[in-house]
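Review form for a predicted model. The reviewer records the input and the model, then writes brief findings.
Reviewer: anonymous (R2)
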Amino acid sequence: MRPYFTRERFGHSQFLAGLLLLAFLLQAAWLVHAELRTAEGPQDEEAVRISEGWRQWHGRGVAGAPLLEPATADSFSEADGFDRQHSPLLYLVSSAPLLAWPRDFDRESSAQWQWLPRLPFMAFGMFLGASLWYVARRLCGNTGGFIALTFYCFSPKFIQASAVWHTEPEILATWGAFGAVFTSIAVAHTLYAPREVVLWNWRRIVLLGVSFAIAIGSQFSMIVLVPIALAFMFYVAPVRRQAAAVIWSAACVVACVLLFSIYFFRPHAFAASLRHADFWGATWRGFMVFGVYKQVAWQIVRACPAMMLALPVAILTYAVWRRSRYFGNTAPLLMAVLFLVLGMAHPDLAGAGFLLGAMPFLFIFVAGILADLLETGYRPLVGAAVVGMLLAYVAWSLLSLARVPSA
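Model under review:
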């Protein structure tokens, strides 16, 4: 049997990527520390997530279907107390660490346990970073992988999302969306292997189903990923579309079972929640308002200030240099544009989720273009510019983080 701990799997590249992810974790932990030093207890929306999840874990109903106290959580529900944006997944994740708490929790003792609900989302932030590095490295090589990972690990928006610092826990939906897209592409590539297609791909089928369940369970409107995944599979494996459809259907079945399990296999609550769910909710009026475009541009810059320089260069290079227009660059760009459009079309909480979900695809696109430029005769000049930009970006992010009040 081939040993698992080999230099190919755990070498210098993996070690350096681990250091970057550790830096990301420490920044998120600092934000959590800064908030908990000044807060007198969980904010209203976080308190609702924790109490609702705690109620479901202890067999007292299903979180958000309906909410126990809808009047205290107006941003969660709009119809009969049901959460129209989320399944019970976020509630269960938020409250799961408190199952290890030796006694009932309350606001008076929040200083002792309030850090626990943040741990899962910090872990999901790490998982998303690791997934981003793995995909970017496969598409763009080591250089592109490290550029994309640096963008991510010092992104104020992703650090904030992982720490759930004055924001919704959108990191889980982002991870699920990212996984669904690139798992579908990976599954399609395996269809060229001369093996029994369904049995050989059962691990990837399960992984694709889990990605669907995580994304849709975190944000109902992420159901758009299901046809997107099928479209990618048909494009990548045009001669095996029947097999791709079978795998896609099996993954959808896995996702449905997992979503049902989130409701603890209670059919009435599951059916009622789906009836009230807002799976679309898009409006095109925002595209007629110039301020919406300005706000989207600001969200991109806020998520990664380095995009002010890197994104225009990448788009211009992609437009004028034919060599850069291949699938590894085009697919992330298409997904980023689609998610930005969906973010503009959703004026509610779902819009913020789509805007955040667009950023990992933008990171891979920009990293791929920069990696291509580094392979040209202008490598010394491009390399100096990229290193300078990344160093300035890291310094700016750390200085901004240091200014966050902690007392």
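Findings: DSSP finds 17 helices and two strands in the chain.
Further findings: The first strand starts at residue 77 and ends at 79.
Recommendation: see findings above.
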